[in-house]
Specification:
The complex is a heterodimer of chains A (about 230) and B (about 625).
Chain A lengths: L1 H26 L14 H13 L3 H14 L4 H13 L9 H6 L4 H22 L6 H26 L4 E4 L3 E4 L8 E5 L4 E8 L2 E5 L5 E5 L3 E3 L9
Antiparallel strand pairs in A: 1-4, 1-7, 2-3, 4-5, 5-6
Helix pairs in contact in A: 1-6, 2-3, 3-4, 6-7
Chain B lengths: L2 H22 E11 L2 E3 L4 E11 L11 E15 L2 E14 L3 E5 L9 E6 L38 E2 L4 E7 L3 E3 L3 E11 L3 E4 L4 E3 L3 E3 L7 E7 L2 E14 L3 E16 L14 H6 L1 H7 L2 E9 L3 E6 L15 E9 L3 E3 L3 E12 L15 E3 L3 E6 L6 E12 L3 E5 L3 E6 L4 E6 L3 E6 L52 H4 L1 H32 L4 H13 L3 H20 L8 H8 L4 H14 L6 H18 L3
Classes of the chains: A alpha+beta (about 230), B alpha+beta (about 625).
C-alpha cells in the first residue's frame, strides 16, 4: 500500500511540476517582440480578424482567423466567418487534409494537459493493478481511459503539427523558379492563400500551394501562422 | 573647344530656349492631347502640350498617381506672315502607366482641356470600367496655400526622399477604444517636379489598425513648405484600432523620385552666376536628363495612440461590437395586413462610428409571429462611411388575426464619449391583421412553427456574419505555438514516463524482496551434520520413506535457493527438466516419490550410498 501511495505522490509531484512549469512558461514571452507583446487569445484574434474582414483586408483577416483557430479550432463562429472570407476571396473554403479536418477537434493546449493527465492515470492504474487484484477490472478501465487520452492527444499533436509550416500570403505574389530577385515566375499565389513552407533561402521561401505547385516566394509576402515557428522549424 | 566656351554655349542655348518659351506663352491658346488614348499596361502613350502664341510658360510635368511622365522633347515653330509673328511650342511627354484604369490627366497649361487615358490590362477591359485607385479626376490645381479640408488638426510634416515628398496624418484624437472609428486625413506631398509618380496609395504599417477603403480620387491642392511648392494629395478616410495598448502608427507611400546625377555643373563656371538656380530647377533637370529616377518609400512621422479595451462591466448581452454614437428608431412597412401576409419591420440605426460593426438579428422566437433573417442596407452620409444610417429590414408574418403588436427591438453599442455602453429600445408597433379567407393554408395558425433563419422563399438562409466575441481577458497565452512543440513542455511527458518507470522499478524490487522474505524460511537448510545424523538415524531404522523425505526436503531447499524459486516449485518434473533424468539428484527425487507412494526396500549399502550422495550434493551446493 505504501508503494501505491508513493507512486501516487510521485505522479502528483510530476504533474504538479509540469503544470507549474507550464504556467511559468505560459507567463514567459517566448517571442520577445517589444513592439507587439505576445499576448494571444482566441477572442482577441477572432475580433481582430472580423475587423480586418470588415475593412476588406482579406489576407490579414484569414491570418488572424487561422491563428485564432489554433487556439479554438472548433469555434463555430470562427469557422463560419473564415469560410465566408475565404469564399469571398475566391479561395477554397476548406483547408487541409483529413487529419487536419478531424484531428483538430479541441484546443491543442487543453489536449496536451489531458494527454499528460491520461499518461499519469494510465501509468498509475497499471502499477496499482499489480497490487490490487480485487480492482483489476476498474484499474484496467482506468488505464484504458488514460491511454485513450494519450492517444487523443497524440492524434491532435499530429494534426496540429502541419500548422508549424503554414503561412498566409499577405498579397498576391509571384512564385518563382529560384530564390533570387527577378527569377522567372511559375505561378501567382493569391492573397490570403494558405501555403506550406518547405524551405528557406535568403529572403525567399519555397512554398507548396493547395494545388501542389511549388515555387519560391519573397518571405515578406508571407506571414507564418505561428509567429515564432519559423525560428523553430 | 575650350570647356568654358562649351558651358557658355550651353548657357546661351538654354537662355534662348527658355526665353523663347517665355515669349511664346505670353499670349494665345493651349492644347493638350494624348495619343493613343487607350493603351495596354506595359505600353506607353505620348502626351503633347502645345502653346500657340508668342509666349510659353514654364511647364511642370503632370502628376497623376499610377502614371509616370518622362519628358522626351520639345519643339518650337515661329512663323512670320505679313510681318505678324506667331509661335507654336510643343512639349512632349512619354506616359508610362503603372496600373490599369481610366486616368484623367489635368491640364498643364491654363486653357488646355484635361485628357483621359485608358489603360487596359493586356487586351482585356479596364477593371470596373471606371476610374481606378490612384487616378485624379478633374485635375485642376488650385493655387495658393492648401486649406485644411476638415477640422482635423495639422500634424508635423516629416519629409522623406531628400525632401522630395512627405506623408502626414491629420486626425482629431489619439486616445480611442478598440473598434472605434476615427476620421483621418492622409496627405502625401510631392515636391513639384521632383516626384515622377506615386506608385500606389498610402498603406498602413503594422497590424494594430485597419483603414477604411481609401477614396479612389484623392483631393489635390498646393502647399508651400519652407518656401518650396508641394502638390498635396489628400485621402479622407477613417482608422479603426483592432487591439488595445500603446500603439504607434505610420503610413508608407511608394513613389518614384527624380535624383540628380553626379557631374552637374553646380560649381565652377556657373557657380554664383545665377545659372546655378536654373540648373537646380527640377524642370531643367527633367528636360535635359541630368536626373535619374529611383523608387522610394516615404513614411509618415510615427503617431502614438492609446487604445483602450472595451470595458467588461455593463456590457449588454446583445452587444455586437458597435462603437460610436447612434440613435435607433423603427417602423413598419404597413399598418394593416392580412393573416399570413409578410410585413417588413425596419430598424434604423443612424449616427457615426464603424457601421461594419453595427449588426442585429432583430426579433427571434416571438409568440404569434413568424420571423425571418433581416436584410441589411447601409446609406453612408459621407465618403468614408463614418456617418450614415444602417437599416435592418426584417420580414415578419403574424399568424394570428386581430390588432397585433410587434415587440420592441433593442440595440446596444459602446459610446466612447460617455465611456459606457448604451442600449436603445424601439417603440412597440401595432398592426391590424385581418383574418385569412376560409380554407387558406395560413388560417387557424397552420404555420405556427417559426423558422428564424429561413428566408421567405423557404431556402436556407445565407450565413450571416458572426459577431465579435466578448474578450474577458481569459485564455491568454504568450505564444501561439502549441505546447506539444515547445521544448520546455516537451520535457513533461518523458518526465512522467521516467517517474512511472522509477515507481515500477521500485515496486518490482520491493516485490522481489517480499517474495524472498516469504520463501526464505523454506530455504534455511539444515546443517550437513544434522542432516547426516537424521539420514543415519533413518538408515539404521531402514525407513526408506523418512530417509528420502528428509533427503528431498534438503535437496528442495538447496535447489530453490539456487534457482531463485520457492521450494514448492521444485517438483520432480522441474528437476528432470532442469537437471536431466540421469542426474543423481533426479534419481533421488524419483526414489523419494517411489518411497512415498510405495514400499521401497533398500539394503544398508544402498542407504549408505544415497546418504553420501545427498550429503555431497547438499554440501557442495549450499552457500557457506
Amino acid at each position: 500500500m505504501s508503494t501505491l501511495r508513493l507512486a501516487g505522490s510521485l505522479a502528483a509531484v510530476v504533474l504538479g511540476l509540469g503544470l507549474c512549469g507550464g504556467e511559468l512558461l505560459a507567463q514567459t514571452p517566448v517571442d520577445a517582440q517589444p513592439a507587439a507583446p505576445a499576448d494571444y487569445s482566441a477572442a482577441r484574434l477572432y475580433n481582430s480578424a472580423n475587423a480586418y474582414a470588415r475593412s476588406g483586408n482579406t489576407a490579414l483577416a484569414v491570418l488572424a482567423y487561422e491563428r485564432a483557430r489554433v487556439l479554438a479550432p472548433t469555434d463555430p463562429d470562427l469557422r463560419s466567418n473564415l469560410r465566408r472570407v475565404r469564399e469571398s476571396a475566391g479561395l477554397p473554403a476548406g483547408s487541409g487534409s483529413w487529419l487536419q479536418e478531424y484531428g483538430r477537434f479541441a484546443s491543442p493546449n487543453t489536449l496536451y494537459w489531458i494527454g499528460i493527465a491520461g499518461l499519469v492515470l494510465g501509468g498509475v492504474c497499471l502499477l496499482a493493478r499489480r497490487r490490487h487484484a480485487r480492482f483489476r477490472g476498474a484499474l484496467l478501465a482506468g488505464a484504458v481511459i488514460g491511454f485513450a487520452a494519450v492517444g487523443a492527444s497524440a492524434f491532435n499533436a499530429a494534426a496540429t503539427f502541419s500548422v508549424l509550416s503554414e503561412s498566409i500570403s499577405l498579397r498576391q505574389a509571384p512564385a518563382s523558379v529560384s530564390p533570387v530577385a527577378g527569377a522567372d515566375p511559375l505561378f501567382q499565389v493569391p492573397a490570403a492563400a494558405t501555403v506550406r513552407v518547405l524551405d528557406r533561402h535568403g529572403g525567399f521561401e519555397l512554398i507548396r500551394d493547395s494545388q501542389g505547385r511549388e515555387g519560391w516566394v519573397a518571405a515578406s509576402d508571407l506571414a507564418p501562422l505561428i509567429p515564432d515557428a519559423a525560428d523553430r522549424t | 573647344m575650350k570647356p568654358y566656351a562649351l558651358r557658355a554655349l550651353i548657357a546661351v542655348v538654354v537662355s534662348l530656349l527658355l526665353g523663347g518659351m517665355t515669349i511664346a506663352a505670353a499670349a494665345g491658346t493651349a492644347l493638350q492631347s494624348i495619343e493613343p488614348s487607350t493603351i495596354s499596361l506595359g505600353g506607353s502613350a505620348q502626351l503633347s502640350i502645345t502653346s500657340i502664341g508668342s509666349d510659353m510658360p514654364a511647364i511642370t510635368p503632370p502628376m497623376v498617381p499610377g502614371l509616370e511622365f518622362l519628358a522626351v522633347g520639345q519643339s518650337q515653330q515661329v512663323q512670320i506672315i505679313n510681318g505678324v509673328t506667331s509661335s507654336k511650342s510643343t512639349v512632349t511627354y512619354q506616359v508610362i502607366p503603372q496600373q490599369a484604369g481610366v486616368f484623367s490627366i489635368p491640364s498643364a497649361l491654363p486653357g488646355a482641356e484635361p485628357v483621359v487615358l485608358t489603360v487596359t490590362r493586356g487586351s482585356g477591359s479596364v477593371p470596373g470600367g471606371s476610374a481606378q485607385g490612384g487616378s485624379v479626376q478633374g485635375g485642376s490645381v488650385q493655387g495658393g496655400q492648401a486649406q485644411p479640408s476638415s477640422s482635423l488638426p495639422a500634424e508635423s510634416t516629416r519629409q522623406g526622399a531628400s525632401g522630395a515628398a512627405f506623408v502626414r496624418l491629420r486626425l482629431a484624437k489619439h486616445e480611442l477604444y478598440v473598434g472605434e472609428m476615427v476620421p483621418v486625413d492622409i496627405q502625401v506631398g510631392a515636391r513639384d517636379g521632383m516626384v515622377a509618380s506615386l506608385n500606389g496609395p498610402p498603406a498602413l504599417n503594422g497590424d494594430a489598425f485597419t483603414l477604411s477603403k481609401l477614396p479612389e480620387n484623392p483631393s489635390r491642392s498646393e502647399e508651400v513648405i519652407d518656401g518650396k511648392p508641394f502638390i498635396v494629395f489628400t485621402w479622407h478616410t477613417a482608422l479603426v484600432a483592432v487591439k488595445p495598448g500603446t500603439l504607434t502608427l505610420t503610413m508608407d507611400t511608394p513613389l518614384t523620385v527624380r535624383v540628380r546625377t553626379p557631374g552637374r555643373p553646380d560649381a565652377g563656371f556657373f557657380s554664383g552666376s545665377g545659372f546655378e538656380d536654373l540648373f537646380n530647377d527640377p524642370a531643367f533637370q527633367n528636360f535635359f536628363g541630368t536626373s535619374t529616377q529611383r523608387d522610394v518609400t516615404v513614411s509618415s512621422a510615427p503617431e502614438t495612440f492609446t487604445v483602450l479595451e472595451l470595458p467588461a462591466e455593463g456590457r449588454p448581452a446583445d452587444f455586437s461590437g458597435a462603437v460610436g454614437k447612434f440613435s435607433v428608431s423603427s417602423d413598419l412597412s404597413q399598418d394593416k395586413a392580412g393573416e399570413g401576409d409578410p410585413i417588413t419591420l425596419r430598424m434604423h440605426v443612424s449616427g457615426e462610428g464603424d457601421f461594419e460593426r453595427v449588426s442585429s438579428s432583430m426579433l427571434h422566437d416571438v409568440d404569434g409571429w413568424k420571423t425571418y433573417t433581416p436584410i441589411v442596407n447601409f446609406k453612408p452620409d459621407d465618403e468614408i462611411g463614418y456617418r450614415g444610417e444602417k437599416i435592418f429590414e426584417q420580414p415578419v408574418i403574424s399568424i394570428q388575426a386581430g390588432k397585433r403588436t410587434v415587440p420592441e427591438v433593442t440595440f446596444s453599442w459602446f459610446d466612447p464619449t460617455t465611456r459606457r455602453y448604451e442600449q436603445a429600445h424601439t417603440e412597440p408597433l401595432t398592426v391590424a391583421i385581418t383574418p385569412a379567407p376560409a380554407g387558406s393554408s395560413v388560417a387557424g395558425g397552420a404555420t405556427a412553427a417559426t423558422s428564424p433563419t429561413a428566408d421567405l422563399a423557404g431556402n436556407e438562409a445565407v450565413p450571416t456574419w458572426r459577431p465579435d466575441h466578448p474578450d474577458n481577458g481569459g485564455g491568454r497565452t504568450s505564444s501561439l505555438m502549441p505546447h506539444y512543440f515547445q521544448p520546455a513542455f516537451m520535457t513533461v511527458p518523458p518526465l512522467v514516463v521516467i517517474a512511472l518507470s522509477t515507481v515500477w522499478f521500485w515496486m518490482r524490487r520491493g516485490e522481489r524482496s517480499a517474495e524472498r522474505a516469504r520463501v526464505e524460511p523454506y530455504m534455511m537448510p539444515p546443517s550437513v551434520e544434522s542432516l547426516a545424523g537424521e539420514l543415519g538415524e533413518y538408515a539404521a531404522a531402514r525407513n526408506a520413506q523418512s530417509f528420502f523425505g528428509a533427503a528431498r526436503k534438503a535437496l528442495c531447499g538447496m535447489l530453490a535457493l539456487k534457482w531463485g524459486v520457492t521450494p514448492p516449485e521444485v517438483t520432480t518434473d522441474e528437476v528432470v527438466s532442469r537437471l536431466g533424468s540421469d542426474s543423481e539428484i533426479t534419481r533421488a527425487f524419483m526414489l523419494a516419490d517411489e518411497a512415498a507412494y510405495s514400499t521401497l526396500k533398500l539394503t544398508p549399502a544402498d542407504f549408505q550410498r544415497w546418504q553420501r550422495i545427498v550429503l555431497r550434493n547438499v554440501d557442495s551446493e549450499m552457500p557457506s
